UniProtKB/TrEMBL annotation:
This is Sugar phosphate transporter domain-containing protein. It is a multi-pass membrane protein. It comes from the Eukaryota. The chain crosses the membrane at residues 63-83, 95-117, 138-159, 165-186, 193-212, 218-235, 255-273, 293-316, 323-343, 349-369. It comes from Diversispora epigaea. One of its GO terms (cellular component) is membrane. It holds the Pfam family TPT. It is found in: Membrane.
Amino acid sequence: MDETSDNNTASRSSLSTGTTSISINLLRNDSAYTIDRSPPNVVQNFLSESVITKSSNVTWENAFRNISYILCWYFFSTALSFYNKHLMGKDYFNLNLPIFVSALHTGMHFVITFAMMKGYLSFIYKKPEEKFVSSNSYLNRVVPCALGAAFEICMANASLVFITLSFYTMIKSSTPVWVLMFAFIFRLEQPRMILVFLISIISIGVVMTVFGETQFNLIGFLLVLGASIISGLRWSLTQMLLQKEEAMNNPIATLYYLSPIMFCAMLLLSFLFENPFNVFNTSSHFSDFFTGVQTVGLMFIGGFLAFCMTVAEFALIKNTSTVTLSVAGISKEVVIISLSVLIDNDKLTSLNLLGLFVSISGIAGYNYYKVTRGNDVAKHYQYTKVNH
């Protein structure tokens, strides 16, 4: 005989897929669902269909959002790479102030994020609830992350003075190896042989693309290699920062706290290694007022590109992981290498092209692994029964 419960009792089903967790409550009362006292498998089948339908919608929504972040990151990062090379490369504009330019960009980031956080730009960004970082968290989490970002960006930009963009991109593609190592060290990713194997395949492809480099420069090579290693460290620190610090739960807040430290560190490095005031007095790029204004204007264009790219990076890391970002970055770097050949006439040998194919194969294998692993997790959800 069928009965309807008079009390509000609930059956909850939980499903986790990657970083997304979904919980659904089904109330057994007159205003919600009335469930017969049928065999347990009927109720479980009903629950599973409800959860899977909801999970599918949320999964597609997350996928669309993450793809949007990746595409934005691709565009602004690629544009910034060509901007930096053409602004600072010896064969182009040859503005030999890579660290000072980086400092100017981070200074712009602080001004923009300060205005957003204080509500001065509410017509394009809703003022968030203001939260504060404790002094302990600031010293132990924010400062190391900001210093790592400052050193990585300065070394990467400085290397473009000495090497081609394609060679820079190929060496920088080793970043996933360092990201993975630091992710293992900080326990952000669980070590798995298949994951190590796929990242190794990508790295082998990168080495193959570099092997035929004819314009090798040791200083440029060491700078970009050091930037790759520091990049692995700083993105692991960034992921821990975004996941644990409530006051930095969005990209704008993260930049708001990081950019002042980065600006000070970069400015100090510029004074130590570049002597910018001497460049202002001697460089043809600052020979008169009008030329100087044009040069400064070019610097600010890069600041806008860097701001948009960084916001997309932080948003992608918060919704996925640093390993996902680094592997997605490999495919972006393949695009940059291809554009370098078309735009800057960089030369690639058959071995370079084979290396690109190997890298793409590793990326495809990693993506397949992540998708199938996510499906396996979805199939093993568990029911939590509530007594009534």
